[in-house]
Amino acid sequence: MTTHTQHAEQLSTTTLLRFATAGSVDDGKSTLVGRLLHDSKSVLTDQLEAVEHASRSRGQEAPDLALLTDGLRAEREQGITIDVAYRYFATPRRRFILADTPGHVQYTRNMVTGASTAELAVVLVDARNGVVEQTRRHAAVAALLRVPHVVLAVNKMDLVDYAEPVFAAIAEEFTAYAASLGVPEITAIPISALAGDNVVEPSAHMDWYGGPTVLEHLETVPVSHDLTACHARFPVQYVIRPQTAEHPDYRGYAGQIAAGAFRVGEAVTVLPSGRTSTIAGIDALGESVDIAWAPQSVTIRLADDIDISRGDLIAPAADAPAVTQDVEATVCHVADQPLAVGQRVLLKHTTRTVKAIVKDIPSRLTLDDLSQHPAPGQLVANDIGRVVVRTAEPLALDAYADSRRTGSFLLIDPADGTTLTAGMAGASFAAAAEPGAAAADDAGWDF
Known about the structure:
Shape: globular
Number of helices: 8
Mean pLDDT: 84
Strand content: 25-35%
Radius of gyration: 24 Å
Low-confidence stretches: 1-12, 72-77, 432-447
Structural class: alpha+beta
Oligomer: single chain
């Protein structure tokens, strides 16, 4: 019993890291993930036995660790990854949620899904092929989605005789490219997922490399879970009015704090109405607290009776976002049917869903060389482009660069409710790292 309790306490004190993996086909991504799970003792015995059995039936001597992640039968048969597979594992130092994303061009939308909540992206490169078109595409998606940490895992080092110059050249080329897109931190690690070099255990074959293994880096990379440093935002999910004899006048606004922290006595603004009030109380898990922070789910009570409903946003009066009906954003189109100028859609932002119309699609981005195609007229599946959307009601949107939670939105088909497009408000890429980079025109790409 004690060990269970200790384990629970240990997990509650460890941090959580969400990370995504990306790489071209046959770069060994699934093998890397399988090796991580296997060598960190995160695989159950029966799972390992099933993998060993499947590997033997294929005539393979060693267990094929890629089978630990490729869950769909089509993935196993073709030896490719199709959908985003989420894996949960933990070490004594940290818990992990891993989004294993596909490498093919036609699954760009799947990578966007997996990387949208990730704090770190592992981009795999085959040491024999170096930085290829798909590698640049993955770096660009990571930069667009503002993933704060990128790991370049140069795999299959065993097939290039563990040569340092091969690794150094690939690392230099990728780092220069990713830095030009504004990726804030890039770590390059030479590995062999098949042999287990530098994945969990340090490699005996690469004494020239003095950096961390992949797992060591994942365990120690600083996680910016401190959403309390962000602009405080509270989207209202539900209004609580019991109107009982016990609570005749209780009126609370329930929801999850998207970012920042809220304190009792703080002056707040309710958007989009712009009405102001003061926080009279905060209830968390049935108890009154003086302060609450993201991502806690709480009920906030205000000093004044204001007309507030689901979809409204409560923010500090001194730091409220601007309200707008014209949304300019970078989007990734995820639906099979195209998105066209003039199309009527629903825009879902936090807990608010409003009617909208696509006013303009100024450009489509070619991820291979980051060139832009002006006025494409429409976006098809996996396209990334700029859109201008006019909403029927005002929205309190932050720039995606400032807040991934309140700067993102979805465009939805009003006819059947399917998700059409994932959007990121504001400029596309972070400003290029080199000094003197010209500020881009608002309608174009910011890189």
